[in-house]
């Protein structure tokens, strides 16, 4: 079963702050039945950002949370309409985010997916696809490889 569907992908997401983007991700997760409570998931995403930025660099963020409110593991992808300040490790604004969701009991998925995604983000061709692909199917195929 795929962890990402067309409904988990949003192009030109409105938002001007990191919190607005995280809130939108939480709402998408709730609307798609991935989490039982959007507000709790939003708070978990914010808590993670306070611990350490998820701004990976190269214009990509990887917000993630493992929590009991997550009903099933999944991947969300958003590309922002405008670049967002994210406190990224390279100090560059973020233009796309890959969000990983995991239930409390799926620590293995959570860590494995984060590790695979971080390795893939080291490759400029992967990053370029995230920034420029215009078809959901392309993003679904490359993001499914991190699960």
UniProtKB/TrEMBL annotation:
Cross-referenced PANTHER family: PTS SYSTEM FRUCTOSE-LIKE EIIA COMPONENT, PTS SYSTEM FRUCTOSE-LIKE EIIA COMPONENT-RELATED
InterPro entries: PTrfase/Anion_transptr (IPR016152), PTS_EIIA_type-2_dom (IPR002178), PTS_IIA_fruc (IPR004715), PTS_SugarTrans_NitroReg (IPR051541)
GO biological process: one example: phosphoenolpyruvate-dependent sugar phosphotransferase system
A cellular component annotation (GO) from this entry: membrane
One Gene Ontology MF term: protein-N(PI)-phosphohistidine-sugar phosphotransferase activity
PROSITE patterns referenced in this protein's UniProt entry, alphabetically: PTS_EIIA_TYPE_2 (PS51094), PTS_EIIA_TYPE_2_HIS (PS00372)
Protein known as: PTS fructose transporter subunit IIA
Signal peptide: none
Cross-referenced SUPFAM superfamilies: Phoshotransferase/anion transport protein
Pfam families named among the record's database cross-references: PTS_EIIA_2
Domain annotation PTS EIIA type-2: ranges: 2-146
Native source organism of the sequence: Clostridium innocuum
